[in-house]
Amino acid sequence: MIRFEQFSRHLEVLKRAHQEDLQNEFIISGIIDKFFIQFELGWKVLKELLVYEGRSEGRTGSPREIIKAAYACFDFMDETIWLEMLQERNNTTHMYNEEAAKELVDHILNCYIAEFERMRNAVMEQYGSTVRE
Questions:
Q1: Is residue 95 part of a domain?
Q2: Does residue 133 lie within any of the structural domains?
Q3: Using one digit for the tens of pLDDT, what is the confidence trace for 67-113?
Q4: Quick one: how far is CA 110 from the chain centroid?
Q5: ∠102-37-64 over CA atoms, to 5°?
Q6: Torsion angle, CA of 17/23/28/31, rounded to 10 degrees?
Q7: Going by C-beta distance under 8 Å and a sequence separation of 6 or more, which residues neighbour residue 111?
Q8: Can you point out the beta strands (E) in the chain?
Q9: Residue 102 buriedness (CB in 10 A; 0-12 / 13-18 / 19+)
Q10: Termini Cα distance of the chain
């Protein structure tokens, strides 16, 4: 599953955000951009897994519907965090406030990266070689 490989590769880059200068506005912007990409890859991996499981919800295009269906199907999903990430992702296109950007980076570093890691680990454990093909 190519998208899962991309998800895992991008996650390794995003995890290095802790090592960067979090006062630099370009770094902050880059972390937010990486989060946006990571979230997009994440919900699309969930969509592919739902299709793999034969779930009709996997055929929709709505991230919200995919997240809700994935929560019902997979025990590794934290629906609250994923819906929060969806809202944050939607808000990034209208983020002009430096404090809001720093707050989002704080959420990314202290919550969202861990949720992406949890998903990656659970998917690898549950699907093994299927996602690595």
A1: yes
A2: no
A3: 999 999 999 999 999 999 999 988 876 667 888 888 999 999 999 99
A4: 14
A5: 95
A6: 0
A7: 81
A8: none
A9: middle
A10: 6
Encoded tokens for 32: 């937010």
**% of the chain surpassing 70 pLDDT:** 96
In this prediction, residue 116 carries a pLDDT of 98
Written as one letter, the residue type at 111 is C
Residue type, 106: D
pTM: 0.92
- Looking at the 3D structure of the chain, how many domains does it have? 1
Give the domain CATH number at 46: 1.20.120
Q: Assess if residue 15 is contained within a domain.
A: yes
Cα–chain center distance at 44 = 9
